[in-house]
Write a structure and sequence with these properties.
The chain has helices at residues 14-18, 68-80, 99-108, 121-154, 159-171; strands at 12-13, 26-29, 35-36, 38-41, 55-59, 85-89, 112-115. By secondary structure, the chain is α/β, with parallel strands linked by helices.
Length: 184
C-alpha cells in the first residue's frame, strides 16, 4: 500500500507540505495523508531501486511511459518501493499531468500532487526539510520540558506521585508504580 514508509525516523504529513502556500502544490489524487520522510527528484524510468520508502518523489516525466501498461508498471514500482506520494512537475516535458498517470495513481492509491511551473523541485525538497527540522525542534523542546518537570517532581512533596504524573503527561498515557512480585 502506498504511503507506508520503510524509512525510519520522523515524517511530516503530505497535507502539511501541500498546504504550504509558497509552493502552490495541487492535490490530484488524494489517498490518505501519508508521512513524507524526504523529497527526492528522479527522471529514471524505474527509480525504485534508489528509494528507501516514505519519499515524495518528484518527476517532470522525462522518461514516463506513454502506454497504459508502462504507466501501470511505473506506479506499481513506486508503490512497491514504499513511495509516499508522487509530485509531478508540469513543464518542460508535459504541459499537464498525463491523465493516464492520474488514473494509475488513483487505481493504486498513490497520492499525486501537481508541482506548478514556477515551483522548482529544490523548493519542495527544502520545504520538506524545513518541516522535518521543525518537527525535530518541537520534539527537543518537549523532551527538555519533560526533563525539567521531572527534575522539579523529584524535589517536591510526594515525589513518587509527582514523577508518575509527569511521566504520564510526557508520554501521553498513564504510569503506575507496581511493587515487584514473584508473579510479575
Amino acid at each position: 500500500m502506498a504511503g507506508q514508509s520503510r524509512a525510519q525516523g520522523h515524517t511530516v504529513p503530505l497535507s502539511t507540505v501541500v498546504g504550504r502556500r509558497d509552493l502552490g502544490l495541487t492535490t490530484l489524487v488524494a489517498a490518505g495523508d501519508p508521512g513524507i520522510g524526504w523529497a527526492v527528484a528522479s527522471e529514471l524510468a524505474d527509480p525504485a531501486a534508489y528509494l528507501r520508502g516514505g519519499e515524495l518523489l518528484l518527476t517532470a516525466g522525462v522518461n514516463l511511459p506513454a502506454a497504459p501498461a508502462g504507466l501501470r508498471g511505473y506506479v506499481d514500482s513506486l508503490v512497491g518501493a514504499g513511495v509516499s506520494a508522487l509530485g509531478f512537475g508540469v513543464t518542460p516535458v508535459h504541459d499537464t499531468v498525463p491523465a493516464g498517470l492520474v488514473e494509475q495513481c488513483r487505481a493504486r492509491g498513490l497520492p499525486l500532487v501537481e508541482v506548478p511551473r514556477p515551483t522548482p523541485f529544490a523548493a519542495v525538497s527544502q520545504a520538506v526539510g524545513a518541516e522535518l527540522q521543525e518537527l525535530h525542534l518541537r520534539d527537543l523542546r518537549r523532551l527538555g520540558e519533560a526533563h525539567q518537570a521531572l527534575a522539579l517532581a523529584v524535589t517536591a512533596d510526594a515525589p513518587v506521585d509527582r514523577v508518575l504524573r509527569v511521566l504520564a503527561d510526557a508520554l501521553g498515557g498513564w504510569a503506575v508504580l507496581a511493587r515487584p512480585s514473584p508473579a510479575v
